[in-house]
Design brief:
By secondary structure, the protein is mainly alpha-helical. It has 3 domains: 171 residues, no CATH class; 390 residues, no CATH class; 102 residues, no CATH class. It is built from 33 helices and 9 strands. Strands 6-5-7-9-8 form a 5-stranded mixed β-sheet, with no helix packed on it. A two-stranded antiparallel sheet has the order 1-4. Strand 2 and strand 3 form a beta hairpin. Helix 11 packs parallel to helix 15 and helix 15 packs antiparallel against helix 27. The longest helix has 39 residues. The protein is globular. Keywords: Membrane, Transmembrane, Transmembrane helix. It holds the Pfam family DUF2079. This is Membrane protein-like protein.
């Protein structure tokens, strides 16, 4: 009996051993043949819900504050949106005066947020590949007869919701600041409202690209046929040419758009003479023997800056004597920087794909675009030529460091870049120091490295490399010569052309003194005052506005980024330069792109460690492929991140058609206000031929560019000029006065408001008005000899 029981037990164990999992699974499948895909959709639905709530809460608070609403759209448009959503007007008084806000119902913003999130989720999921690691159908109500796997809609929904959930962090910080009375925190958070939304949307765009790129690359690798070894180089060359041609086409498209915008501003009389059209007058006066000057300058222009780069346009200008030529050349020069960024990525090892994306990010980088058209519509600055020239200099420097180019190419580019402005010595000095330090930290075969060498011995070896190697010697010479050139410019050359007066931009640092020597001394001896100007909200916002549009990629190459820190610090001590919408930051643009081109490569290990921690904690997606293509793919993903940030920040900050401002009809910078033909421009055509070209004309700023080709072209403003004896009057030889009565910032609207006509009516004749009050023209009554 016992033997029979034992045999039966063995038989049962033997027959049951391969079956248990199968029988259990079969029973589960039988009972749940039509189960919903709950787990993937529960996760993605939760994240989408958080994103909706965060966006709705932020929209309510942003629309309620005029300060924050103006970061997105014009105040008039923001008011219309608030009222359309059922908002009620609220008035209150704080220490700064009467304030206005709108109490927008949360339900209204929640509806808008839900529509945006659902549409973004559906469209984004639809555009992703259908084979994206999941079931055939990935819709939330799809049934499955097997283990549910997350499909394209669930994967994208989770990433989209996670990206928008960062808005809850902004909301939390803002609420904590308000409840605790932490004004600094509130100031930082409110000032970065638009930047927060831009970076959240950039995260979503980056995650979407990551999902699609992973799938497409997987298909490429599986479907790609074997390539003979001797054909690999030709395929790589072909792919490089394809990326280059695509970037070139986009560069030309960018140029076409901005040239059209610049020219439209010119035809609409929206370009000022001061700091813009005056440079065209320099070329005209040189060709006609009047010297390197405009009559806006206090003497020769070299008394303002050692800036002669725009004289290189003289051969072209002699053929086409027009300010439109200068605008076209500036735009083409700025756009060409994208092609140099592409080359920098090839040299850094980032690859052609990364070069394409980062070059495109350069074109979308709004601090670069503001060098083409500034916020005050100054459209031509010679400083703009410094960006491609400095990028070219850095490219040749990196090639020389690798032994792929002779040193004379780098030095030639460096010397040409110095003609842009004396400020570039503030870049080349730190660049020389960077060369010395980097070569000092590198290992060398010249000095044998002993395993037991002490720290002191290693420091000796580093110092030896700094002063004995070609790179170290070149860096030392560059550092010293940059300091000498800067001192020569501000202490000798510029004062020489100003009759001994100091540089005019010393007044930008009035807090530290009135002369260059006094300013430098106070900065060196009063570090408390310097730190007080550097460590504040304005400096932080300036840094964020430069770094965030590139996704903070320059931080991944800190040594290169440090080259621009001295100039950045000097700009932060400046009273007027802490804004990337003017021209002062021009050299920093090239430094930031240079650091980005190397940062997307040097940050590989750092990003890999972060990814390992995040994937261990959850399923956040950072686009890195840890396989044989890892080294070439990861820089591409980071470059796409930079492009996503450039696109989304440009949405709120750019003046181009890629920005909301361009389409906002209530904005002062919309296409309706700036680029559509106006009655004022048409009215000027009626007096364009009224004054002979041999006359000497004094005119206001925005009509002044039309008279730079006349015998004399004087500035009519409230600024005393040397040509007028530093008095508020027109020069004695002035034949005509032209007042732009309805132009920007015009303070004169009637002939009686013109001092010359009001005080000496017998000396000036008021010509008949044929412009319906747009322009006032006075003609001097010369006494007969």
């Amino acid at each position: 009996m016992a033997e029979a029981i034992e045999r039966m037990s063995k038989k049962n164990r033997g027959s049951r051993s391969p079956q248990p999992a199968r029988s259990v699974d079969s029973s589960r499948l039988t009972g749940n043949a039509a189960t919903w895909q709950r787990l993937p959709w529960r996760s993605s639905g939760g994240w989408l819900g958080l994103g909706m709530i965060g966006l709705a809460m932020c929209l309510r608070d942003w629309l309620g504050s005029q300060q924050m609403a103006s970061q997105f759209v014009s105040l008039v448009t923001a008011q219309k949106i608030s009222l359309a959503l059922g908002g009620s007007l609220q008035r209150f008084i704080d220490p700064s005066g009467l304030k206005v806000s709108y109490d927008v119902p949360f339900a209204s913003t929640m509806i808008i947020s839900s529509l945006f999130v659902v549409m973004g989720w559906l469209v984004g999921g639809w555009l992703l590949p259908q084979t994206l690691e999941g079931t055939e159908t990935s819709l939330p109500l799809a049934k499955s007869t097997g283990n549910a796997q997350p499909g394209r809609y669930s994967l994208w929904g989770k990433k989209f919701g996670q990206s928008l959930s960062w808005l809850l962090v902004w909301q939390l910080c803002w609420t904590v600041g308000l409840l605790t009375g932490w004004e600094s925190l509130v100031g930082v958070v409110e000032a970065n409202a638009s930047m927060t939304l831009a970076l959240s949307l950039a995260c979503a765009l980056w995650a979407w690209w990551s999902l699609g790129s992973e799938q497409s690359r997987g298909h490429e690798q599986s479907a790609q046929p074997a390539v003979p070894p001797n054909d690999t180089a030709s395929l790589a060359s072909s792919a490089e040419k394809s990326s280059w041609r695509s970037l070139l086409a986009l560069t030309l498209a960018y140029s076409l758009v901005f040239i059209s915008m610049n020219w439209a501003l010119w035809f609409n009389l929206r370009i000022p003479h001061g700091d813009s059209a005056m440079y065209e007058e320099h070329l005209w006066n040189i060709l006609h023997g009047k010297g390197f000057r405009s009559y806006l300058d206090q003497g020769f222009f070299l008394g303002e800056h050692l800036q002669v780069i725009h004289l290189g346009l003289l051969p072209l200008y002699s053929i086409w004597k027009s300010h439109l030529l200068l605008e076209m050349c500036e735009t083409l020069a700025l756009a060409s920087g994208a092609l140099i960024v592409f080359q920098l990525c090839l040299v850094s090892g980032a690859g052609r794909r990364a070069g394409f994306w980062l070059g495109l990010a350069y074109l979308m980088y709004f601090p670069m675009q503001f060098l083409d058209i500034e916020i005050d519509l100054k459209t031509f600055r010679p400083e703009a030529f410094g960006i491609p020239l400095l990028l070219l200099t850095l490219w040749q420097l990196e090639l020389w460091r690798l032994g792929k180019a002779p040193i004379w190419r780098w030095l030639t580019c460096l010397l040409i870049t110095l003609t842009v402005k004396e400020d570039y010595s503030l870049i080349f000095g730190p660049l020389g120091l960077w060369l010395m330090v980097t070569v000092g930290w590198q290992s060398s075969a010249v000095i044998p490295q002993e395993a037991t060498s002490s720290l002191w011995q290693r420091c000796q070896q580093s110092c030896w490399r700094m002063v004995k190697t070609p790179q170290g010697i070149a860096g030392g010479i560059l550092l010293v010569s940059s300091v000498v050139y800067l001192l020569f410019a501000v202490k000798v050359a510029i004062p020489f052309f100003r009759d001994g007066e100091g540089v005019h931009y010393a007044r930008y640092y009035a807090e530290f003194g009135s002369s260059f020597t006094e300013i430098a001394w106070n900065m060196a001896t009063r570090p408390d005052r310097v730190l007080g100007r550097l460590l504040n909200l304005q400096t932080l916002m300036f840094a964020i506005s430069l770094l965030a549009p590139l996704g903070f990629l320059p931080l991944l190459s800190p040594s290169r980024l440090l080259v621009g820190v001295p100039l950045f610090g000097l700009l932060c001590l400046n009273n007027i330069a802490q804004d990337p919408r003017h021209q002062f930051h021009a050299p920093l643009v090239a430094i930031l792109l240079w650091a980005s081109a190397y940062g997307i490569v040097s940050g590989r290990e750092w990003i890999q460690r972060i990814r390992a921690r995040l994937t261990a904690a959850g399923d956040w997606s950072i686009p890195i492929r840890p396989n044989e293509n890892y080294a070439g793919w990861q820089p591409e993903g980071l470059a796409v991140w930079g492009l996503a940030c450039a696109l989304q920040t440009g949405l709120w900050f750019s003046l181009s058609p890629m920005g909301v401002t361009f389409w906002d009809a209530n904005s002062n910078w919309s296409w309706q206000q700036l680029y559509r033909p106006t009655e004022r421009a048409a009215a000027f055509s009626k007096i364009a031929d009224l004054i002979p070209a041999t006359a000497k004309v004094a005119s206001t700023d925005y009509v002044h560019p039309r008279y730079t080709h006349y015998e004399r072209s004087y500035d009519y403003s409230k600024y005393p000029r040397k040509v007028s004896g530093y008095e508020l009057r027109v020069p004695e030889d002035t034949d005509y006065i032209v007042i732009d009565a309805r132009g920007p910032y015009s303070a004169i609207h009637e002939p009686s408001q013109i001092p010359e006509f009001a005080q000496y009516p017998e000396k000036w004749e008021l010509l008949p008005d044929t412009t319906n009050g747009y322009f006032i023209v006075l003609k001097r009554r010369w006494e007969s000899p």
